[in-house]
Amino acid sequence: MPADRDFTAIMPLRRVAAMRTGEKPERGRARMKNSEIAVLFNEIADILELREENRFRVSAYRRGAQNIEGLPGAIEDAAADSALADIPGIGKDLASKINEYLDTGKISFLEELRKETPQVLIDMLRIPGIGPKTAVLLHRHLGIGSLEELRHAALDHRIRELPKMKEKTEENILKGLEFLERSGGRTPIGEAYPLAERIIDELGKLPEVKRITPAGSLRRFRETIGDIDILVTSPKAGTVIERFTHLADVERVLAEGTTKGSVITAGGIQVDLRVVDEKSYGAALCYFTGSKEHNIRLREIAIQKKMKLNEYGLFRTLRSGGERRIAGATEEDVYRGLGLPFIPPEIREDSGEIEAARRGALPALVGMKHIKGDLHFHSNWSDGAASLEELAEYGRKAGYRYLAVSDHSKSLRIAHGLSEDRLRAQIAEIDRINGQTRGFRLLKSSEVDILPDGALDLDSSVLEKLDIVIVAVHSKFKMPRPEMTRRVINAIENPHASILAHPTGRLLGSRDAYEIDMEAVIEAAAATCTAIEINAHPMRLDLNAAMARKAAESGVMISIGTDTHKPALEMRHIRYGVYTARRGWLTKEQILNTRTANQLLGILHKKRNR
DNA sequence: GCCGTTTTCGGCCCGACTGTTTTCAGTCG
Questions:
Q1: Residue A304 CA to nucleotide B11 C1', Å?
Q2: Which nucleotide is nearest to A89 (CA to C1')?
Q3: What is the pLDDT at residue A7?
Q4: β-strands A187-188, A224-225: how paired?
Q5: How are the residues of chain A apportioned to helix, strand and coil, as percentages rounded to the nearest 5?
Q6: Distance in angstroms (rounded) separating the CA atoms of residues A23 and A21
Q7: Buried residues in A434-455 as b, exposed as e (16+ CB within 10 A)
Q8: How far is the CA of A215 from the C1' of B25 (A)?
Q9: Rounded alpha-carbon distances, angstroms, from residue A495 to A5, A69, A469, A591
C-alpha cells in the first residue's frame, strides 16, 4: 500500500460528512427533510456517545432518527400539524430540535457539540472495530487528527504502546481502513442479493446444512445493504462455518467461532453466517432479520407478558426463577407467542406494523406471484438490446401476459429516440406481432420525454394511438424546485399521460434526486388519475418505499417497471420493484400490473375519456 | 431523552466474539 494514499475514495462517507455540515440546506436535494434530520440526530448520538453521556439518552436520539426516516409522510407536515409528539420516540425535546431545524436549517445543540468535538472522532467511528472508547483513546493519547494519521500511527507501531493494544489491534485498524476505503459503506441490493444467492446456493449443497436463508436488511429488501446475513441450521456448525470461510468469494476472515463466521468478500462486502439449532430457527430468523427497532419492540412486548425473547426462543419466566420455552422453531410461533400475527419481513421497521398487527390491520402485501407483466421495457428501436419479437419471447418465457414496449422519444437523441413517424411504424409492427400470438401481448407504449416547459415530446395524434403513455424527465435536471415541480405536474395534467416514470430521477450512490415537491406531484397524480412508477432498477428504486406508500394512500395507482434495456440481465429486476412495493405496504389492488391487460388499460383510459 | 393496562420516577433488549486478559471491556448486530 503506497504510503501517501489518501482517502478521497471514501465518497459515500464524504457525502454524509457534507450533509453533516448542515448550514446550507443542500442544493439539488429533493429529498424530504426526514433523512436530513435523521442524519443529524444520529450525529448527535455519535457525539454524545463519544462523550460517554447516558447511553439511554444516546439511544433516544438513535430511535428518534430511525422513526423519522421511516415515516411515510414528510416531517414538515407532521410539524405543521403539531403532530411531532405523535411520532414514537419523539418527545418535547426532540420535537423542538426538529422545529428548530425546519425553521432555521440548523440545530444549535448540535452546532455546540460539533465545536467541542474533533471531526476525526466521528470519522473513526466508521471504521469497523473502532467504537467510541477506542476512538477517544487514540485521539487523546496519540493525538490522531485524521484517518490518514491513524493509518500512519498503525504502520509506525505507535498504537501498540497504548494499554490493551497490541499488534493485532494495529492490523485490524489497517484492515478496517482499507475496507472502508474500498467498500465505501453500503452496497446496493442489486449487487448484494445475487452474491447472497450464490453463497446460499454453494453452502446449500453441503449435506450438513439443513436450512439456509438470507436474513438482515437483505431479507427486508432495503435499498442498500450494510452486510449480508445468512442463517443456517445444522447439526455440524463447525463444518459449515469452515466451508463458509473457504468459499471462493472470500477474501478475508473476520471471525470464526462455533456459532458464527464473518468474512469480507473480494468485492468488499461483509458476510455474516450464523448457525443455530433447529428448535431456535424461527427465533433466530426473527432476531437476525431485524430491524433492530422492530426487535426491541418485540422484546418489550415479551417483557410486558412476563416473557423473554432472544435469538434462541421465546421463554416464559417461571415463579421458581427458571424459564420454559414456549416458541422458537418458526417465526409464526414466536409472533403467536407474543399475541401477534406473522409480520412480513419487509415491513419490520417499527413504522406502525406492530400497532397494525395488534389491530388485525396488516395489509395483504403484493407478491411476485401477482405480477402479470412488466410496464417499462425498451427495444432495439431505441437503446434496448432486443428486437420486438425477442421481447415477446422473453415476456412469454417469464410467464407474463403482457409487456409494455416503451422506447424513448425523439428528443433523447443519444438513445435513438423515436419520432412520430418511427413510432407509428413501431405501432404497426407490434400490431402485426400481436396478431400472430395468443395469450401474450406487447402493449404499445412510449417513454415520452417531459420537455423543460412540461410539454410532451410527441404529438397528441400519435400518443392517442398508444395503449400506455409513460412520461419522464431525462434532461435539465438542475431546474429550481418550483419550476421542476410545475414541469412535471404540467406533464401529468396532459390527458394522454398515463404513468409518471422514475419520478425523482435519483441514482443510488451516484445522483441525488432532482429538486421537486413530490407531495404536490402525488396530489396532482391523484387528481388526474395518473399512475406513478416504482422503477425496479436496483440503482433507481424510484419511487422509494416510503413515497410509494404515501402515493398509494393518496389513491394513486402504482406501476412497477424494470426499465429493461438488456432483457437477459435486467428483466429479473422486477423483484426489487415488487419488494419495494411490499416495503411500502402496498397490496395487489394498488398495483397496475397485477391486473390483466384489459383491466389495466381500462383503469388508465378512464383519464383519457374524462 | 422517552415513556407509562404495574409507573410522572425509574426504568430503558440481549448475547457472541475478539483481544487482551486471568475475569473482562469493547464492539457489533
A1: 13
A2: B2
A3: 29
A4: antiparallel
A5: 50, 15, 35
A6: 6
A7: beeeeebbbbbbbbbbbbeebe
A8: 29
A9: 56, 35, 10, 21
What three-state secondary structure class fits A321? Answer: coil
Residue A549: the pLDDT is 92
d(CA A335, CA A513): 38
Per run of 10 residues, the mean pLDDT along chain A (length 610 residues) is: 28 31 32 77 91 88 83 81 86 93 93 91 86 90 89 90 86 83 75 92 92 93 89 90 89 85 85 91 92 87 86 83 85 92 92 87 95 96 93 95 96 89 96 93 96 94 96 90 94 96 84 85 96 95 92 96 93 96 96 96 86
CA angle A456, A462, A464 (to 5 degrees): 90
Half-sphere exposure (Cβ direction) of A433: Cα atoms closer than 13 Å: 21
Record the cell numbers describing residue A273, joined without a space.
Answer: 453466517
Taking the C-alpha atoms of residue A155 and residue A174, their distance in angstroms, rounded to an integer, is 8
What Rg do the C-alpha atoms of chain A give, in angstroms? 26
State the cell numbers at A169. Answer: 489491534
Question: Do residues A482 and A441 make contact, with C-beta atoms less than 8 angstroms apart?
Answer: no
Q: How far, in Å, CA of A157 to CA of A176, rounded?
A: 16
d(CA A109, CA A111) in angstroms, rounded, equals: 5
Q: Which residue is nearest to nucleotide B3 (CA to C1')?
A: A89
Nucleotide nearest to A163 (CA to C1'): B20
Q: Which nucleotide is nearest to A216 (CA to C1')?
A: B29
pLDDT of residue A1: 28
Burial class (CB in 10 A: 0-12, 13-18, 19+), A138: buried
Instruction: Supply the pTM of this predicted model.
Output: 0.78
* A261 phi and psi angles, rounded to 5 deg: -125, 150
- Listed in sequence order, the residues at least 6 apart from A137 whose beta carbon sits closer than 8 Å to its beta carbon are A162
CB A597 within 8 A of CB A373: yes
DSSP H helical ranges for A5-106: 11-21, 33-50, 55-69, 75-80, 92-104
Output the distance from A292 CA to B11 C1' rounded to whole Å. 20
Which three three-digit cell numbers place residue A480?
429550481
Measured to protein CB atoms, the chain B nucleotides within 7 Å are: 1-3, 6, 11-21, 25-29
C1' (B4) to CA (A557) span, angstroms? 41
- Sheet holding A373-377: strands in order across? A373-377, A402-408, A441-449, A468-472, A499-500, A531-535, A558-561
User: Which nucleotide does the CA of A85 lie closest to, via C1'?
Assistant: B2
CA A71 to C1' B1 (Å) is 20
Record the cell numbers describing residue A293, joined without a space: 427497532
